Amino acid sequence: MNVEVIPAIDLRGGQVVRLRQGDYAQETQYACAPQELAARYARAGARWLHVVDLDGARAGDLANLSVISALAKAGMQVQAGGGVRAQDDVHRLFDAGVSRVVLGSVAIRDPERVARWLDAYGAERFTIALDTRYRDGVWSLPSAGWTEEETRTLDELAPWYAHHGARHLLCTDIERDGMLAGFNLALYCHLAQIVPQLAVQASGGVRSLDDIRTAREAGAHGVILGRALLEGRFTLEDALAC
Protein backbone atom coordinates (compact mmCIF):
# COMPACT_ATOMS: atom_id res chain seq x y z
CA MET A 1 0.00 0.00 0.00
CA ASN A 2 1.30 3.44 -0.90
CA VAL A 3 1.16 6.18 1.71
CA GLU A 4 0.40 9.83 0.92
CA VAL A 5 3.08 12.14 2.32
CA ILE A 6 1.43 15.42 3.32
CA PRO A 7 3.47 18.40 4.54
CA ALA A 8 1.74 20.62 7.08
CA ILE A 9 1.62 24.33 7.76
CA ASP A 10 0.19 25.50 11.08
CA LEU A 11 -0.87 29.15 11.15
CA ARG A 12 -1.13 31.60 14.01
CA GLY A 13 -1.44 35.29 13.31
CA GLY A 14 -0.65 34.57 9.68
CA GLN A 15 2.74 33.07 10.59
CA VAL A 16 4.13 29.54 10.42
CA VAL A 17 4.28 28.05 13.93
CA ARG A 18 4.37 24.74 15.75
CA LEU A 19 2.97 23.89 19.17
CA ARG A 20 4.21 21.27 21.60
CA GLN A 21 1.44 18.81 22.51
CA GLY A 22 -1.16 21.33 21.41
CA ASP A 23 -0.12 23.83 24.09
CA TYR A 24 -0.58 27.40 22.84
CA ALA A 25 1.91 28.56 25.49
CA GLN A 26 4.61 26.36 23.93
CA GLU A 27 4.81 27.88 20.47
CA THR A 28 7.76 27.94 18.10
CA GLN A 29 7.66 30.52 15.31
CA TYR A 30 9.47 29.96 12.01
CA ALA A 31 10.89 32.73 9.88
CA CYS A 32 9.60 31.40 6.55
CA ALA A 33 6.48 32.97 5.07
CA PRO A 34 3.58 30.51 4.61
CA GLN A 35 3.38 31.10 0.84
CA GLU A 36 7.11 30.61 0.38
CA LEU A 37 7.03 27.39 2.38
CA ALA A 38 4.07 26.08 0.38
CA ALA A 39 5.84 26.90 -2.88
CA ARG A 40 8.88 24.97 -1.68
CA TYR A 41 6.74 21.95 -0.84
CA ALA A 42 5.04 22.13 -4.23
CA ARG A 43 8.41 22.21 -6.03
CA ALA A 44 9.46 19.14 -4.05
CA GLY A 45 6.55 17.24 -5.55
CA ALA A 46 3.92 17.14 -2.79
CA ARG A 47 0.38 16.56 -4.05
CA TRP A 48 -1.37 17.62 -0.84
CA LEU A 49 -0.84 20.31 1.79
CA HIS A 50 -2.36 20.16 5.29
CA VAL A 51 -3.16 23.58 6.81
CA VAL A 52 -4.29 24.23 10.37
CA ASP A 53 -5.70 27.59 11.48
CA LEU A 54 -4.68 27.48 15.14
CA ASP A 55 -6.33 30.80 15.91
CA GLY A 56 -9.57 29.53 14.41
CA ALA A 57 -9.36 26.17 16.17
CA ARG A 58 -9.35 27.83 19.56
CA ALA A 59 -11.68 30.76 18.87
CA GLY A 60 -14.13 29.10 16.49
CA ASP A 61 -13.67 31.30 13.43
CA LEU A 62 -11.64 31.26 10.21
CA ALA A 63 -9.02 33.70 11.41
CA ASN A 64 -6.43 32.92 8.73
CA LEU A 65 -8.74 32.47 5.74
CA SER A 66 -6.87 34.92 3.50
CA VAL A 67 -3.61 33.04 4.06
CA ILE A 68 -5.32 29.70 3.42
CA SER A 69 -6.70 31.09 0.16
CA ALA A 70 -3.18 32.08 -0.91
CA LEU A 71 -1.82 28.63 0.00
CA ALA A 72 -4.52 26.97 -2.11
CA LYS A 73 -2.93 28.65 -5.14
CA ALA A 74 0.51 27.11 -4.52
CA GLY A 75 -0.07 24.16 -6.84
CA MET A 76 -1.12 21.48 -4.38
CA GLN A 77 -4.50 20.24 -3.23
CA VAL A 78 -5.17 21.66 0.23
CA GLN A 79 -6.98 20.15 3.17
CA ALA A 80 -7.56 22.81 5.79
CA GLY A 81 -9.38 23.26 9.06
CA GLY A 82 -9.45 25.01 12.38
CA GLY A 83 -12.50 27.04 13.34
CA VAL A 84 -15.06 25.27 11.14
CA ARG A 85 -18.29 25.33 13.12
CA ALA A 86 -21.07 26.05 10.60
CA GLN A 87 -22.02 25.26 7.03
CA ASP A 88 -21.07 28.79 6.00
CA ASP A 89 -17.51 28.07 7.15
CA VAL A 90 -17.45 25.04 4.87
CA HIS A 91 -18.59 27.17 1.94
CA ARG A 92 -15.97 29.82 2.66
CA LEU A 93 -13.18 27.27 2.63
CA PHE A 94 -14.43 25.69 -0.57
CA ASP A 95 -14.65 29.17 -2.13
CA ALA A 96 -11.06 29.79 -1.00
CA GLY A 97 -9.91 26.81 -3.06
CA VAL A 98 -9.67 24.17 -0.34
CA SER A 99 -10.15 20.65 -1.70
CA ARG A 100 -10.95 19.01 1.63
CA VAL A 101 -12.28 20.67 4.76
CA VAL A 102 -10.93 19.26 8.01
CA LEU A 103 -13.62 18.94 10.67
CA GLY A 104 -12.44 18.67 14.26
CA SER A 105 -14.45 20.14 17.12
CA VAL A 106 -17.73 20.11 15.20
CA ALA A 107 -17.14 16.47 14.25
CA ILE A 108 -16.87 15.60 17.94
CA ARG A 109 -19.69 17.79 19.24
CA ASP A 110 -22.26 17.47 16.44
CA PRO A 111 -21.68 14.33 14.35
CA GLU A 112 -25.23 14.32 13.01
CA ARG A 113 -24.70 17.70 11.38
CA VAL A 114 -21.38 16.57 9.92
CA ALA A 115 -23.07 13.47 8.51
CA ARG A 116 -25.49 15.76 6.65
CA TRP A 117 -22.52 17.63 5.17
CA LEU A 118 -21.00 14.33 4.05
CA ASP A 119 -24.24 13.53 2.25
CA ALA A 120 -24.59 17.01 0.76
CA TYR A 121 -21.05 17.55 -0.55
CA GLY A 122 -19.57 14.06 -0.72
CA ALA A 123 -17.19 12.24 1.61
CA GLU A 124 -14.15 13.12 -0.51
CA ARG A 125 -14.58 16.80 0.40
CA PHE A 126 -13.95 16.24 4.11
CA THR A 127 -11.37 14.88 6.52
CA ILE A 128 -12.72 13.98 9.95
CA ALA A 129 -10.11 14.95 12.57
CA LEU A 130 -10.41 12.92 15.75
CA ASP A 131 -7.28 14.00 17.60
CA THR A 132 -6.90 12.01 20.74
CA ARG A 133 -5.25 11.66 24.12
CA TYR A 134 -5.07 8.40 26.10
CA ARG A 135 -6.46 8.96 29.59
CA ASP A 136 -8.02 6.68 32.17
CA GLY A 137 -7.97 3.72 29.82
CA VAL A 138 -9.75 5.39 26.89
CA TRP A 139 -8.82 7.47 23.86
CA SER A 140 -10.47 10.79 24.74
CA LEU A 141 -11.27 13.51 22.18
CA PRO A 142 -10.35 17.05 23.27
CA SER A 143 -11.83 19.86 21.18
CA ALA A 144 -11.42 23.63 20.62
CA GLY A 145 -7.77 23.39 19.70
CA TRP A 146 -7.35 20.57 22.22
CA THR A 147 -8.25 22.92 25.10
CA GLU A 148 -11.62 21.41 26.13
CA GLU A 149 -12.46 17.83 27.08
CA GLU A 150 -15.44 16.06 25.53
CA THR A 151 -17.37 12.99 26.65
CA ARG A 152 -17.29 11.07 23.36
CA THR A 153 -14.35 8.74 22.72
CA LEU A 154 -12.36 7.73 19.65
CA ASP A 155 -13.67 4.16 19.82
CA GLU A 156 -17.21 5.52 19.77
CA LEU A 157 -16.94 8.12 17.01
CA ALA A 158 -14.53 6.58 14.51
CA PRO A 159 -16.83 3.59 13.78
CA TRP A 160 -19.83 5.94 13.80
CA TYR A 161 -18.30 8.01 11.01
CA ALA A 162 -17.27 4.91 9.08
CA HIS A 163 -20.89 3.77 9.23
CA HIS A 164 -22.15 7.18 8.10
CA GLY A 165 -20.05 7.37 4.97
CA ALA A 166 -16.86 9.18 5.96
CA ARG A 167 -13.80 8.33 3.90
CA HIS A 168 -10.84 10.21 5.41
CA LEU A 169 -9.85 10.19 9.09
CA LEU A 170 -7.01 12.25 10.53
CA CYS A 171 -5.90 11.11 13.97
CA THR A 172 -3.17 12.75 16.03
CA ASP A 173 -1.87 11.40 19.31
CA ILE A 174 -1.74 14.76 21.08
CA GLU A 175 0.97 13.64 23.49
CA ARG A 176 3.27 12.99 20.50
CA ASP A 177 2.46 16.18 18.58
CA GLY A 178 5.53 18.33 18.03
CA MET A 179 7.65 16.06 20.22
CA LEU A 180 9.68 14.21 17.54
CA ALA A 181 9.07 10.98 19.44
CA GLY A 182 7.75 8.90 16.54
CA PHE A 183 4.20 7.90 15.69
CA ASN A 184 2.08 5.99 18.18
CA LEU A 185 1.93 2.85 16.06
CA ALA A 186 -0.39 1.08 18.50
CA LEU A 187 -2.99 3.79 17.86
CA TYR A 188 -2.91 3.30 14.09
CA CYS A 189 -2.94 -0.49 14.36
CA HIS A 190 -6.01 -0.10 16.58
CA LEU A 191 -7.72 2.14 14.01
CA ALA A 192 -6.89 -0.30 11.22
CA GLN A 193 -8.78 -2.93 13.21
CA ILE A 194 -11.87 -0.94 14.17
CA VAL A 195 -12.28 1.18 11.00
CA PRO A 196 -10.50 -0.63 8.15
CA GLN A 197 -12.72 1.12 5.61
CA LEU A 198 -11.35 4.58 6.49
CA ALA A 199 -8.23 6.09 4.94
CA VAL A 200 -6.36 7.08 8.10
CA GLN A 201 -3.83 9.90 8.16
CA ALA A 202 -1.20 9.57 10.88
CA SER A 203 0.00 12.70 12.62
CA GLY A 204 2.08 13.63 15.62
CA GLY A 205 5.72 12.91 16.33
CA VAL A 206 7.34 11.89 13.05
CA ARG A 207 11.12 12.27 13.34
CA SER A 208 12.63 10.09 10.60
CA LEU A 209 11.96 8.37 7.31
CA ASP A 210 11.60 5.10 9.20
CA ASP A 211 8.56 6.56 10.97
CA ILE A 212 6.87 6.97 7.59
CA ARG A 213 7.58 3.34 6.70
CA THR A 214 6.34 2.00 10.02
CA ALA A 215 3.17 4.12 9.84
CA ARG A 216 2.40 2.52 6.50
CA GLU A 217 2.99 -0.92 7.99
CA ALA A 218 0.58 -0.02 10.82
CA GLY A 219 -2.15 0.67 8.28
CA ALA A 220 -1.92 4.44 7.72
CA HIS A 221 -2.85 5.72 4.26
CA GLY A 222 -1.24 9.13 4.81
CA VAL A 223 1.31 10.81 7.05
CA ILE A 224 1.35 14.46 8.12
CA LEU A 225 4.82 16.01 8.37
CA GLY A 226 5.31 19.20 10.34
CA ARG A 227 8.20 19.99 12.65
CA ALA A 228 10.54 17.37 11.17
CA LEU A 229 10.47 19.17 7.82
CA LEU A 230 10.70 22.64 9.33
CA GLU A 231 13.78 21.66 11.30
CA GLY A 232 15.47 19.74 8.48
CA ARG A 233 15.37 16.25 9.97
CA PHE A 234 14.99 15.04 6.40
CA THR A 235 13.88 16.53 3.10
CA LEU A 236 10.41 16.36 1.65
CA GLU A 237 11.94 14.89 -1.51
CA ASP A 238 13.34 11.97 0.52
CA ALA A 239 10.03 11.51 2.33
CA LEU A 240 8.14 11.37 -0.96
CA ALA A 241 10.63 8.85 -2.34
CA CYS A 242 10.25 6.79 0.84
Automatic annotation (TrEMBL):
Record InterPro entries: Aldolase_TIM, His_biosynth, HisA/PriA, HisA_bact_arch, Isoase_HisA-like, RibuloseP-bd_barrel
Compartments reported by the entry: Cytoplasm
GO cellular component: cytoplasm
Keyword presence, Nuclease: no
Key word NAD present: no
Residues annotated as catalytic: 10, 131
Domain of life: Bacteria
One GO BP: L-tryptophan biosynthetic process
EC number(s) recorded for this UniProt protein: 5.3.1.16
Pfam family, one: His_biosynth
Recorded GO MF terms: 1-(5-phosphoribosyl)-5-[(5-phosphoribosylamino)methylideneamino]imidazole-4-carboxamide isomerase activity
Catalysed reaction, written as an equation: 1-(5-phospho-beta-D-ribosyl)-5-[(5-phospho-beta-D-ribosylamino)methylideneamino]imidazole-4-carboxamide = 5-[(5-phospho-1-deoxy-D-ribulos-1-ylimino)methylamino]-1-(5-phospho-beta-D-ribosyl)imidazole-4-carboxamide
Pathway participation: Amino-acid biosynthesis; L-histidine biosynthesis; L-histidine from 5-phospho-alpha-D-ribose 1-diphosphate: step 4/9
Family matches, as CDD domains: HisA
Keywords: Amino-acid biosynthesis, Cytoplasm, Histidine biosynthesis, Isomerase
Family: Belongs to the HisA/HisF family.
Record protein name field: 1-(5-phosphoribosyl)-5-[(5-phosphoribosylamino)methylideneamino] imidazole-4-carboxamide isomerase
